[in-house]
Design a protein that fits this description.
single chain; alpha+beta; Fructose-1,6-Bisphosphatase, Chain A, domain 1; D-Maltodextrin-Binding Protein, domain 2; 8 helices; 13 strands; binds 6-O-phosphono-beta-D-fructofuranose
Protein backbone atom coordinates (compact mmCIF):
# COMPACT_ATOMS: atom_id res chain seq x y z
CA UNK A 1 0.00 0.00 0.00
CA UNK A 2 1.63 3.28 -1.03
CA UNK A 3 -0.45 6.29 -0.02
CA UNK A 4 -3.63 6.00 1.93
CA UNK A 5 -5.19 8.46 4.28
CA UNK A 6 -5.78 7.74 7.94
CA UNK A 7 -9.50 7.40 7.74
CA UNK A 8 -9.29 4.81 4.97
CA UNK A 9 -6.66 2.79 6.78
CA UNK A 10 -8.52 2.76 10.07
CA UNK A 11 -11.68 1.81 8.20
CA UNK A 12 -10.07 -1.03 6.27
CA UNK A 13 -8.50 -2.30 9.44
CA UNK A 14 -11.80 -2.35 11.26
CA UNK A 15 -13.41 -4.03 8.25
CA UNK A 16 -10.66 -6.64 8.24
CA UNK A 17 -11.29 -7.39 11.88
CA UNK A 18 -15.00 -7.60 11.21
CA UNK A 19 -14.52 -10.08 8.36
CA UNK A 20 -12.22 -12.25 10.37
CA UNK A 21 -14.32 -12.22 13.48
CA UNK A 22 -17.47 -14.10 14.24
CA UNK A 23 -18.85 -11.16 16.09
CA UNK A 24 -22.52 -10.35 16.04
CA UNK A 25 -23.85 -7.23 14.32
CA UNK A 26 -24.00 -5.17 17.49
CA UNK A 27 -20.32 -5.63 18.15
CA UNK A 28 -19.37 -4.77 14.59
CA UNK A 29 -21.12 -1.46 15.11
CA UNK A 30 -18.95 -0.89 18.16
CA UNK A 31 -15.73 -1.27 16.15
CA UNK A 32 -17.13 1.20 13.66
CA UNK A 33 -17.53 3.56 16.62
CA UNK A 34 -13.86 3.28 17.61
CA UNK A 35 -12.88 4.13 14.03
CA UNK A 36 -15.07 7.23 14.18
CA UNK A 37 -13.56 8.40 17.46
CA UNK A 38 -10.02 8.00 16.08
CA UNK A 39 -10.83 9.75 12.79
CA UNK A 40 -12.49 12.60 14.64
CA UNK A 41 -9.41 13.10 16.79
CA UNK A 42 -7.17 13.10 13.74
CA UNK A 43 -9.23 15.97 12.33
CA UNK A 44 -8.98 17.94 15.61
CA UNK A 45 -5.22 17.43 15.51
CA UNK A 46 -5.08 19.16 12.12
CA UNK A 47 -6.62 22.24 13.77
CA UNK A 48 -4.19 21.99 16.68
CA UNK A 49 -1.32 21.81 14.23
CA UNK A 50 -2.54 25.06 12.63
CA UNK A 51 -3.07 26.71 16.03
CA UNK A 52 0.48 25.96 17.08
CA UNK A 53 1.87 27.73 14.04
CA UNK A 54 -0.49 30.69 13.94
CA UNK A 55 -0.79 31.38 17.67
CA UNK A 56 2.76 30.47 18.65
CA UNK A 57 3.69 33.95 19.84
CA UNK A 58 0.79 34.05 22.26
CA UNK A 59 2.05 31.17 24.32
CA UNK A 60 4.54 32.69 26.70
CA UNK A 61 2.50 35.64 28.00
CA UNK A 62 -1.11 36.15 28.91
CA UNK A 63 -1.40 39.25 26.74
CA UNK A 64 -0.50 39.98 23.14
CA UNK A 65 1.05 43.21 21.86
CA UNK A 66 -2.40 44.81 21.66
CA UNK A 67 -2.99 44.15 25.36
CA UNK A 68 -5.58 41.44 24.61
CA UNK A 69 -5.81 38.36 26.79
CA UNK A 70 -4.39 35.31 25.06
CA UNK A 71 -5.08 31.73 25.86
CA UNK A 72 -2.19 29.34 26.47
CA UNK A 73 -1.78 26.75 23.75
CA UNK A 74 -2.10 23.79 26.11
CA UNK A 75 -5.41 25.15 27.40
CA UNK A 76 -6.65 25.85 23.86
CA UNK A 77 -5.71 22.33 22.76
CA UNK A 78 -7.55 20.87 25.74
CA UNK A 79 -10.68 22.87 24.93
CA UNK A 80 -10.55 21.90 21.24
CA UNK A 81 -10.43 18.17 22.02
CA UNK A 82 -13.05 18.29 24.78
CA UNK A 83 -15.53 20.36 22.79
CA UNK A 84 -15.22 18.23 19.69
CA UNK A 85 -15.67 14.95 21.55
CA UNK A 86 -18.58 16.36 23.57
CA UNK A 87 -20.43 17.91 20.63
CA UNK A 88 -19.91 15.15 18.06
CA UNK A 89 -23.22 13.61 16.94
CA UNK A 90 -22.03 10.69 14.83
CA UNK A 91 -20.76 8.76 17.88
CA UNK A 92 -20.78 9.03 21.64
CA UNK A 93 -17.80 9.00 23.95
CA UNK A 94 -18.62 7.38 27.27
CA UNK A 95 -16.12 9.13 29.54
CA UNK A 96 -13.33 11.60 29.00
CA UNK A 97 -10.30 12.47 31.09
CA UNK A 98 -7.74 15.13 30.30
CA UNK A 99 -4.37 15.65 31.89
CA UNK A 100 -5.43 19.28 32.33
CA UNK A 101 -8.37 18.39 34.63
CA UNK A 102 -8.51 16.40 37.83
CA UNK A 103 -11.76 14.53 37.27
CA UNK A 104 -13.40 12.15 34.81
CA UNK A 105 -16.05 13.82 32.62
CA UNK A 106 -19.04 11.61 31.93
CA UNK A 107 -20.27 12.38 28.41
CA UNK A 108 -22.64 9.61 27.31
CA UNK A 109 -22.31 6.78 29.78
CA UNK A 110 -25.17 4.66 28.49
CA UNK A 111 -24.84 5.36 24.78
CA UNK A 112 -21.09 5.33 24.25
CA UNK A 113 -18.86 2.30 24.60
CA UNK A 114 -15.40 3.90 24.45
CA UNK A 115 -13.76 6.27 26.91
CA UNK A 116 -10.87 8.54 25.97
CA UNK A 117 -7.92 9.91 27.92
CA UNK A 118 -5.61 12.57 26.58
CA UNK A 119 -2.62 14.69 27.36
CA UNK A 120 -3.53 17.61 25.06
CA UNK A 121 -0.09 19.16 24.68
CA UNK A 122 2.66 17.00 26.09
CA UNK A 123 6.00 18.78 26.37
CA UNK A 124 4.41 22.24 26.58
CA UNK A 125 7.32 23.41 28.75
CA UNK A 126 9.67 23.22 25.73
CA UNK A 127 7.32 24.80 23.20
CA UNK A 128 8.76 28.30 23.75
CA UNK A 129 12.11 26.91 22.55
CA UNK A 130 10.35 25.81 19.34
CA UNK A 131 10.88 22.10 20.03
CA UNK A 132 8.45 19.37 19.00
CA UNK A 133 5.45 18.70 21.26
CA UNK A 134 2.45 16.42 20.87
CA UNK A 135 -0.92 15.02 21.91
CA UNK A 136 -1.17 11.53 23.48
CA UNK A 137 -4.48 9.62 23.57
CA UNK A 138 -5.71 6.36 25.04
CA UNK A 139 -8.99 4.61 24.07
CA UNK A 140 -10.65 2.39 26.66
CA UNK A 141 -13.37 -0.18 26.29
CA UNK A 142 -15.88 0.84 28.97
CA UNK A 143 -15.35 3.10 31.97
CA UNK A 144 -12.06 4.60 33.06
CA UNK A 145 -10.57 3.51 36.39
CA UNK A 146 -12.72 0.36 36.39
CA UNK A 147 -10.21 -1.81 38.26
CA UNK A 148 -8.81 -3.36 35.06
CA UNK A 149 -5.23 -3.18 33.81
CA UNK A 150 -4.37 -1.25 30.65
CA UNK A 151 -3.93 -4.57 28.85
CA UNK A 152 -7.49 -5.59 29.78
CA UNK A 153 -9.22 -2.31 29.07
CA UNK A 154 -7.37 -0.52 26.26
CA UNK A 155 -8.92 -0.60 22.78
CA UNK A 156 -6.29 1.58 21.13
CA UNK A 157 -3.77 4.40 21.46
CA UNK A 158 -2.62 7.31 19.36
CA UNK A 159 -0.20 10.22 19.45
CA UNK A 160 0.41 13.22 17.24
CA UNK A 161 3.76 15.03 17.07
CA UNK A 162 3.77 18.68 16.02
CA UNK A 163 7.28 19.27 14.69
CA UNK A 164 8.65 20.39 11.33
CA UNK A 165 5.91 18.04 10.08
CA UNK A 166 2.80 16.83 11.89
CA UNK A 167 2.89 13.06 12.27
CA UNK A 168 0.41 10.63 13.78
CA UNK A 169 0.95 7.09 15.07
CA UNK A 170 -1.85 4.84 16.23
CA UNK A 171 -2.15 1.23 17.32
CA UNK A 172 -4.99 -1.19 18.01
CA UNK A 173 -4.17 -4.29 20.08
CA UNK A 174 -3.19 -7.14 17.77
CA UNK A 175 -3.29 -4.89 14.67
CA UNK A 176 0.15 -3.23 14.75
CA UNK A 177 1.24 0.40 14.89
CA UNK A 178 1.13 2.71 11.86
CA UNK A 179 2.58 6.13 11.09
CA UNK A 180 1.03 8.96 9.04
CA UNK A 181 2.27 12.38 7.92
CA UNK A 182 -0.02 15.39 7.50
CA UNK A 183 0.29 16.63 3.94
CA UNK A 184 -2.05 19.11 2.25
CA UNK A 185 -4.67 18.57 4.93
CA UNK A 186 -4.63 14.76 4.81
CA UNK A 187 -2.87 12.19 6.96
CA UNK A 188 -0.90 10.15 4.41
CA UNK A 189 0.38 6.72 5.36
CA UNK A 190 4.15 6.93 5.92
CA UNK A 191 4.82 3.44 7.26
CA UNK A 192 2.54 0.64 8.32
CA UNK A 193 3.37 -2.11 10.81
CA UNK A 194 6.19 -0.22 12.52
CA UNK A 195 8.79 -2.48 14.10
CA UNK A 196 11.02 -2.11 17.15
CA UNK A 197 14.41 -3.82 16.92
CA UNK A 198 15.48 -5.85 19.96
CA UNK A 199 18.35 -3.42 20.56
CA UNK A 200 18.88 0.20 19.52
CA UNK A 201 21.57 2.89 19.57
CA UNK A 202 19.97 5.91 21.25
CA UNK A 203 18.88 6.65 24.81
CA UNK A 204 16.77 9.36 26.41
CA UNK A 205 17.29 9.45 30.18
CA UNK A 206 14.79 11.66 32.08
CA UNK A 207 14.98 13.02 35.62
CA UNK A 208 17.79 14.92 37.39
CA UNK A 209 20.87 12.76 37.53
CA UNK A 210 21.61 13.65 41.15
CA UNK A 211 18.24 12.14 42.12
CA UNK A 212 18.72 8.83 40.29
CA UNK A 213 19.03 5.65 42.34
CA UNK A 214 22.37 3.82 42.23
CA UNK A 215 20.84 0.97 40.17
CA UNK A 216 19.47 3.37 37.56
CA UNK A 217 22.74 5.28 37.40
CA UNK A 218 24.70 2.06 36.83
CA UNK A 219 22.26 1.09 34.07
CA UNK A 220 22.65 4.44 32.26
CA UNK A 221 26.46 4.20 32.63
CA UNK A 222 26.28 0.79 30.95
CA UNK A 223 24.41 2.32 27.96
CA UNK A 224 26.96 5.15 27.77
CA UNK A 225 29.80 2.63 27.80
CA UNK A 226 28.12 0.81 24.92
CA UNK A 227 28.28 4.08 22.93
CA UNK A 228 24.56 4.79 22.93
CA UNK A 229 23.88 8.31 21.67
CA UNK A 230 21.99 10.77 23.87
CA UNK A 231 18.67 11.99 22.44
CA UNK A 232 16.61 13.82 25.06
CA UNK A 233 14.50 16.90 24.30
CA UNK A 234 12.31 17.20 27.41
CA UNK A 235 9.07 16.31 25.57
CA UNK A 236 8.12 12.69 26.24
CA UNK A 237 6.05 12.27 23.09
CA UNK A 238 8.84 13.59 20.86
CA UNK A 239 11.51 11.54 22.64
CA UNK A 240 9.55 8.27 22.48
CA UNK A 241 8.57 9.05 18.89
CA UNK A 242 12.28 9.39 18.09
CA UNK A 243 12.88 5.85 19.37
CA UNK A 244 9.76 4.57 17.56
CA UNK A 245 10.77 6.11 14.23
CA UNK A 246 14.39 4.92 14.52
CA UNK A 247 12.98 1.51 15.49
CA UNK A 248 15.16 1.05 18.59
CA UNK A 249 16.59 2.55 21.76
CA UNK A 250 15.37 3.40 25.22
CA UNK A 251 13.49 6.21 26.95
CA UNK A 252 13.55 6.19 30.74
CA UNK A 253 12.08 8.34 33.47
CA UNK A 254 13.02 6.50 36.64
CA UNK A 255 12.03 6.49 40.29
CA UNK A 256 13.84 9.43 41.89
CA UNK A 257 15.18 9.62 45.42
CA UNK A 258 12.51 12.22 46.25
CA UNK A 259 9.80 10.83 43.90
CA UNK A 260 9.66 7.01 44.07
CA UNK A 261 6.93 6.92 41.39
CA UNK A 262 8.85 9.12 38.98
CA UNK A 263 7.08 11.92 37.13
CA UNK A 264 5.07 10.57 34.23
CA UNK A 265 1.37 9.72 34.34
CA UNK A 266 0.16 6.20 33.74
CA UNK A 267 -3.19 6.95 32.11
CA UNK A 268 -2.35 10.03 30.11
CA UNK A 269 1.17 9.28 28.97
CA UNK A 270 2.58 5.85 29.74
CA UNK A 271 -0.11 3.28 28.94
CA UNK A 272 -0.93 4.72 25.48
CA UNK A 273 2.77 4.83 24.53
CA UNK A 274 3.32 1.35 26.02
CA UNK A 275 0.53 -0.08 23.86
CA UNK A 276 2.05 1.41 20.71
CA UNK A 277 5.57 0.21 21.56
CA UNK A 278 4.35 -3.30 22.43
CA UNK A 279 2.44 -3.47 19.12
CA UNK A 280 5.79 -2.80 17.40
CA UNK A 281 7.45 -5.68 19.30
CA UNK A 282 9.09 -3.48 21.95
CA UNK A 283 8.60 -3.37 25.70
CA UNK A 284 7.60 -0.92 28.43
CA UNK A 285 7.99 -1.55 32.16
CA UNK A 286 8.20 0.36 35.42
CA UNK A 287 11.56 -1.38 35.84
CA UNK A 288 9.94 -4.68 36.84
CA UNK A 289 6.35 -5.02 35.66
CA UNK A 290 4.85 -4.23 32.26
CA UNK A 291 3.28 -0.77 32.19
CA UNK A 292 0.20 -2.30 30.52
CA UNK A 293 -0.26 -4.77 33.40
CA UNK A 294 -0.57 -1.96 35.96
CA UNK A 295 -4.06 -1.06 37.16
CA UNK A 296 -4.62 2.73 37.21
CA UNK A 297 -6.25 3.64 40.53
CA UNK A 298 -6.55 7.38 40.02
CA UNK A 299 -6.08 9.90 37.24
CA UNK A 300 -2.87 11.33 38.62
CA UNK A 301 -1.10 7.99 39.18
CA UNK A 302 2.57 8.16 38.21
CA UNK A 303 5.06 5.46 37.43
CA UNK A 304 8.73 5.10 36.60
CA UNK A 305 9.14 3.98 32.98
CA UNK A 306 11.61 2.11 30.76
CA UNK A 307 10.27 1.96 27.21
CA UNK A 308 11.73 0.94 23.86
CA UNK A 309 13.78 -2.04 22.70
CA UNK A 310 13.46 -5.31 24.64
CA UNK A 311 17.17 -5.78 25.40
CA UNK A 312 17.60 -2.36 27.01
CA UNK A 313 14.40 -2.74 29.06
CA UNK A 314 15.60 -6.16 30.25
CA UNK A 315 19.04 -4.73 31.09
CA UNK A 316 17.35 -2.06 33.22
CA UNK A 317 15.46 -4.78 35.12
CA UNK A 318 18.72 -6.56 35.86
CA UNK A 319 20.35 -3.42 37.28
CA UNK A 320 17.28 -2.46 39.28
CA UNK A 321 16.95 -5.89 40.90
CA UNK A 322 20.64 -6.36 41.82
O1 LIG B 1 5.14 15.11 31.66
C1 LIG B 1 5.57 16.27 31.13
C2 LIG B 1 6.99 16.25 30.60
O2 LIG B 1 7.20 17.53 30.04
C3 LIG B 1 7.30 15.17 29.58
O3 LIG B 1 6.84 15.49 28.30
C4 LIG B 1 8.81 15.08 29.64
O4 LIG B 1 9.35 13.85 29.25
C5 LIG B 1 9.07 15.34 31.10
O5 LIG B 1 7.95 16.04 31.62
C6 LIG B 1 10.32 16.14 31.26
O6 LIG B 1 10.67 16.18 32.57
P1 LIG B 1 12.08 16.81 33.05
O7 LIG B 1 11.91 18.28 32.89
O8 LIG B 1 12.18 16.40 34.49
O9 LIG B 1 13.15 16.24 32.18
Amino acid sequence: MAHEDLERLVRSEIELRTHQSTKIDGEDRVEHELRRVMSCISSVSKKISRDLKSLYRGYTGTQNTFGEEQIRLDVLTDIRLKNRLRDENSFHVRQLASEESDEVMVLAKDEGRYSVTFDPLDGSSVIDANLSVGTILGFYDGDLLDGKSGRESMAGAMYVVYGPATTLVYAIPGRGAHEFVLEDGNFILEKEYLEMKDKGQIYAPGGSENKWTSGHKAFIDDLKNQDYKLRYSGALVADVNHIIVKGGGLFSYPALTDAPNGKLRLLFELQPLALIVEEMGGKATNGLDDILDLVPKDLGQRSPVYIGSKKEVELARQYLTQ
